[in-house]
């Protein structure tokens, strides 16, 4: 069945939605189920969900360990969230969902590339999230058994590097390690990511996920044509974020598997 084009309206502006993660504005997030490995935010206070799950819910304004997240959020406020949408179709992420992805697993974006002998099972699994995360599954067990999901041998600390517009789909704050110890921790993570990506490619046929640029997604662009208008603005936006985030860091010491049903609803066991 053909997918009908989707549109969103803001005042007198009507936009065709070209991003499958967006459903409308003010940001309405389209179903986009899947699972990933994320750094566990320091001192996070997850909200309980039914059946023993916890929802990602960062107390950005009150947790001193999350001052970098707070600065990123305040920079978005200064740039003007509604202006960013009106002029560039950017749907800003809520600050309580800020996170840093370590590795992308199976999701609505790569489900069609899964090998035929697994594709029939994958769709019910994705549709069954979040409860499906609590079931034994061939889809999540390799990730759960990866060394990445064990207690990290050493913590890793990041600082803000720069702002980037990725693929006309998202605006991200790229992070970088602050010192040699964190660089070594990052190199270990990269090696284990390659092993895990190779494993999932061999098992399920999805594309290998090799490159890793730690980042916080600040928003998704709803319309690719409006996104092009943002290109010359990124330099100024970058200056604003640097002015608020420079000198701040965030430290992680563990990684967990998280499921998600859209881009603002993440949960773990």
Brief sketch in words of this structure:
This protein is α+β, with helices and mostly antiparallel strands and 269 residues long.
Q: Low-confidence spans: pLDDT under 50, at least 5 residues? A: none
Q: Count the strands?
A: 15
Radius of gyration, Cα only, in angstroms? 18 Å
Please work out how many helical segments DSSP would assign: 7
Top-tier CATH class? Alpha Beta
CATH topology: Cyclic Phosphodiesterase, Chain: A
Strand order of the largest sheet: 6-7-15-14-5-9
CA-based shape: globular
CATH superfamily: Cyclic phosphodiesterase
Number of domains: 1
Helical content stands at: 25-40%
Mean pLDDT: 91
Descriptive notes:
With about 270 residues, this protein is α+β, with helices and mostly antiparallel strands. The chain has helices at about 65-80, 80-90, 115-125, 140-145, 180-205, 225-230, 235-245; strands at about 5-10, 15, 20-25, 30, 35-40, 45-50, 55, 90, 100-105, 155-165, 170-175, 215-220, 250, 255-260, 265-269. The radius of gyration is 18 Å and the shape is globular. The protein has one domain (about 5-269): Cyclic Phosphodiesterase, Chain: A, CATH 3.90.1140.10. A six-stranded antiparallel β-sheet has the order 6-7-15-14-5-9, covered by helices on one side. Strands 8-12-11-10-13 form a five-stranded antiparallel β-sheet, with helices on both faces. It has seven helices and 15 strands.
Q: How are the secondary structure elements laid out?
A:
Blueprint: E1 6-10, E2 13-17, E3 22-24, E4 28-29, E5 34-39, E6 47-49, E7 53-55, H1 67-79, H2 81-88, E8 90-92, E9 101-107, H3 116-127, H4 141-144, E10 156-166, E11 170-177, H5 180-204, E12 215-221, H6 224-230, H7 234-245, E13 249-252, E14 255-262, E15 265-268
Antiparallel strand pairs: 1-2, 3-4, 5-9, 5-14, 6-7, 7-15, 8-12, 10-11, 10-13, 11-12, 14-15
Helix pairs in contact: 1-7
């Amino acid at each position: 069945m053909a997918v009908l084009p989707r549109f969103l309206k803001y005042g007198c502006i009507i936009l065709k939605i070209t991003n499958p993660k967006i459903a409308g504005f003010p940001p309405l997030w389209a179903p986009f189920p899947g699972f990933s490995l994320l750094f566990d935010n320091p001192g996070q206070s997850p909200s309980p969900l039914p059946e023993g799950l916890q929802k990602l819910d960062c107390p950005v304004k009150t947790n001193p360990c999350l001052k970098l997240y707070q600065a990123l959020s305040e920079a978005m406020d200064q740039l003007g969230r509604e202006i960013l949408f009106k002029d560039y179709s950017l749907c800003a992420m809520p600050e309580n969902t800020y996170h840093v992805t370590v590795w992308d697993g199976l999701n609505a974006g790569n489900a069609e590339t899964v090998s035929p002998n697994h594709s029939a099972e994958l769709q019910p699994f994705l549709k069954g999230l979040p409860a499906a995360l609590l079931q034994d599954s061939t889809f999540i067990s390799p990730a759960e058994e990866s060394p990445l999901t064990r207690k990290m041998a050493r913590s890793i600390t990041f600082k803000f590097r720069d702002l980037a517009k990725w693929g006309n789909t998202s605006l991200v704050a790229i992070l970088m390690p602050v010192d040699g110890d964190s660089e070594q921790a990052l190199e270990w993570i990269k090696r284990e990511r390659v092993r895990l990506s190779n494993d999932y490619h061999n098992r399920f046929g999805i594309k290998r996920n090799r490159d890793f640029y730690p980042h916080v997604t600040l928003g998704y662009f709803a319309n690719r044509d409006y996104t092009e208008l943002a290109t010359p603005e990124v330099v100024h936006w970058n200056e604003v974020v640097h002015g608020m985030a420079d000198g701040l860091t965030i430290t992680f010491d563990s990684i967990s598997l998280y499921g998600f049903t859209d881009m603002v609803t993440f949960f773990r066991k």
